[in-house]
Structures are given as structure tokens and as C-alpha cells.
Design a protein that fits this description.
Blueprint lengths: L5 E2 L4 E4 L8 H5 L5 E5 L2 H7 L7 E3 L6 H4 L7 E3 L7 H6 L2 E2 L3 E4 L6 H13 L5 E4 L3 E5 L3 E4 L6 E6 L5 E6 L15 E14 L4 E6 L3 H9 L1 H4 L18
Parallel strand pairs: 1-6, 2-3, 2-7, 3-4, 4-5, 7-8
Antiparallel strand pairs: 8-9, 9-14, 10-13, 11-13, 11-14, 12-13
Length: 241
């Protein structure tokens, strides 16, 4: 168990202060029933009729009127400015799965920071829900019950190798890295198996695959196969990297 602000033995919705689509809450609620807010995401949660179990962040973008509606013992102010509110939330939540909404769309630099944080907090199983796609960090091993023809995109956030089954273009023997090689718009030929050697590979699937991916990441064997908080070879890097 992490040394965390908030613990749940059930999946959670994490609400950010970015764009929240009309159906984002209802989509996330097919998997999780309760939410935590990252800073300004508290306003979106209340507007959707959900009282956050916790509000975590530097609180620089959440209106005072919003905070007044939330019990004070649920508000957790983290003042440091060396990390994003998404990072602050992930490192302080312990849950079997986190569904992140309000983190895609709008500013591109914010969206890139979210993808970066998925690799920094590689021990947190997170699915980011976008308008058309979902994004998650590939764990060391993953089996997905995909149908033939499903788009499967793999995008490296650092140097990474791996192996695959059930992809039209296998990744075995390939060296992935930003600026070198990515795996955009691969396709499933049936159920897909993925193995990656480092916590740097993002997987992007159509949004309708959310239930399938959530079920896969919640399997007991998958919960035991998480990346450690920091891979041994990266343990000396500063937390903001």
C-alpha cells in the first residue's frame, strides 16, 4: 500500500480541471462510482452531482465557492510547484484503477504533461479518457480480449522494447523511442498480448474499449504485475522527471 492521502479498494474517477466532455462522467461511471478531484476538477465534479471524496492539489484553480461546498477534511493542499496537480493526485491515491477525466483537450502542453506523468507514476494503473481515445501506460505484461480490426496505437515516452501477440505488425525486436520509432495505428488480429521491458510505452485504443481495458487491468494477476514506483535503473532521477 502507498503512503497515500486517499485509499480505495475499488476503482476511482479522478477529475481534472480541463475539458470534461458531455458523457465523460457517465462513461467513467460504468467502471467507478466515486471520484477524487485534482484541484479545479472539484468544480466539474460538483456540477455533475458528485461530491469528491478528496480534493488534492495546490488549489490555485479551484474557486473558493467550490471549496466551501466540500467538507474541509476532504481538502488536501499541496503547495509545491515542482509537479502538476495530476502528479500530486496520483502519488497520493492508492486504488486498483484510476479513470482520469478532464485531462485531455484544451492546452497541448497540459496534455503532454499528463502523458509524461503516466510514466513517472508508473505504479498507478490509470486510464485517461479522451474524446475519442483512451490512453494508459502498458504494464510489464497485458492481455486484452480485443476483436480483430481494433486500432491499437503504441507510443513511446522513452526508449523501450517489447513483444506482442495478436498485432498485425508485431513489435518483437523493434527499438521504440521518441524521435526514432512509434507504433501508430497498428491493428489487432484477435486477442492481443503485450510485454514491455520499461515503463515508457503508452497504449491508445478507441474509447469504446474502456470496459475491456478496465477489466484487464483489474484482474488479480494484472494487479500483481504493476511496475514498481520507480524502475530500479531510474530510481536516481528527480521526481519531476
Amino acid at each position: 500500500m502507498k503512503n497515500s492521502i486517499f485509499f480505495s479498494d475499488l476503482p476511482l474517477i479522478l477529475v481534472g480541471g480541463g475539458q470534461v466532455g458531455r458523457t465523460d462522467f457517465s462513461t467513467a461511471q460504468t467502471v467507478a462510482k466515486h471520484c477524487v478531484a485534482a484541484d479545479g476538477g472539484a468544480a466539474a465534479a460538483l456540477a455533475a452531482g458528485m461530491m469528491p471524496k478528496a480534493v488534492i492539489g495546490d488549489l490555485d484553480s479551484v474557486p473558493a465557492a467550490t471549496l466551501e461546498q466540500i467538507p474541509s477534511d476532504r481538502i488536501h493542499h499541496i503547495a509545491e510547484q515542482d509537479s502538476t496537480d495530476f502528479d500530486k493526485a496520483l502519488r497520493n491515491i492508492d486504488a486498483p484503477l484510476i479513470l482520469a477525466i478532464g485531462f485531455c483537450g484544451g492546452r497541448i502542453d497540459h496534455q503532454l504533461a499528463v502523458f509524461h506523468t503516466l510514466t513517472v507514476r508508473c505504479d498507478s494503473p490509470v486510464i485517461v479518457i479522451g474524446e475519442e481515445d483512451i490512453v494508459f501506460l502498458c504494464p510489464p505484461r497485458l492481455n486484452l480480449d480485443t476483436d480483430a480490426g481494433l486500432r491499437v496505437s503504441l507510443f513511446p515516452m522513452g526508449p523501450v522494447t517489447g513483444r506482442s501477440e495478436g498485432l498485425q505488425w508485431p513489435i518483437d525486436g523493434l527499438q521504440f523511442a521518441p524521435g526514432l520509432r512509434s507504433g501508430t495505428s497498428n491493428r489487432a488480429t484477435g486477442p492481443v498480448g503485450l510485454e514491455t521491458d520499461d515503463p515508457f510505452m503508452l497504449c491508445l485504443l478507441p474509447r469504446e474499449a474502456l470496459g475491456m481495458v478496465a477489466a484487464a487491468l483489474l484482474r488479480p494477476e494484472q494487479q500483481r504485475a504493476r511496475w514498481p514506483a520507480r524502475a530500479e535503473r531510474y530510481k536516481d532521477l528527480p521526481p519531476s522527471l
